[in-house]
Amino acid sequence: MDLLCTERAADCSAYCDPMLLDDPRVLKNLLKTEEFYTTNSSYFQNVQTEITPEMRKIVAEWMLEVCEEERCQDEVFPLAMNIMDRYLSLVNIKKTQLQMLGTVCLLLATKLRQPNPLMSMLLSSYTDYSAPVEDIPGWELMVACRLKWDLAAITPVDFVGHILHRLPLDGELRAMVTRHAHTFISLAARESKFCMFTPSIIAGASVASALNGIRWSSRGGWPLSRLMDMLSRLLFVEKEYLCTCLGQLEEMLSDSLTQAAQALQQQQQMEDESQPEFKPQTPTDVNKVHF
């Protein structure tokens, strides 16, 4: 019997090169370069006249849903948001153009960070064709030119491997912490308030939150205070900045879990209300039951 499988195979990812992880110059260059790609949320007051943080979050959540649906690489969404924030900090756009900008940023990010980039037609369909396919190339060129073709930005995902490589974690635990940290980084990229932190700080706080969530200290790992001291020395950043970012990250995760629980409860209530009321039926005569 022939089976028809409509699932798309996941793209193959390269293994982390231990030579790059062991060389301290790589991390040093990342820390030195990240400053050139860091933005802040002040563009809402200084540049943009129609775009608000709430609008940015709505488009960011849509972009994240597209990445999850298409199973994009973990690096794609943070890079797309970085490109979008850098463009918004330079160019004033209309609110009707924000989804088009998000579409183009996703397209550029997939071209840079994964083997098979998303197609323009596919991205246009995710917008219900409010972003016309014929307009995407023009916007793509406009964004790239405005950013001087410097699109391969440093993102928090680039630091996760270097941080975990310097912690005493086994392979299985390291893989789980990596998944959790990448998830936290993606969730943080939706919020404009995290633009004030550098990618290395967000990565450090995400790793700390992931380890704290699995109670690493009770498994023979380090206490949170020792972990934060180590991250502060490794990333050359004040411990207070890491703690502030970690606190905001934990607050965001708590709010996200609360909203998800409320949405699930509302969905269950709607399903219960849509079901017909149960009415007892007359029992079947025992003589008519065939054993």
UniProtKB/TrEMBL annotation:
Pfam families documented for this protein: Cyclin_C, Cyclin_N
**Keyword list, A-Z:** Cell cycle, Cell division, Cyclin
In the record, what terms sit under GO molecular function? cyclin-dependent protein serine/threonine kinase regulator activity
* Gene Ontology biological process terms from the UniProt entry: cell division; mitotic cell cycle phase transition
The answer to whether UniProt assigns keyword Cell division to this entry is: yes
Cited CDD domains? CYCLIN_CCND_rpt2
Ranges where the Cyclin C-terminal domain occurs: 154-277
Q: Where is this region: Disordered?
A: 266-291
Q: Name all Cyclin-like domain ranges.
A: 61-145
Q: Which family does it belong to?
A: Belongs to the cyclin family.
The protein, known as: Putative g1/s-specific cyclin d
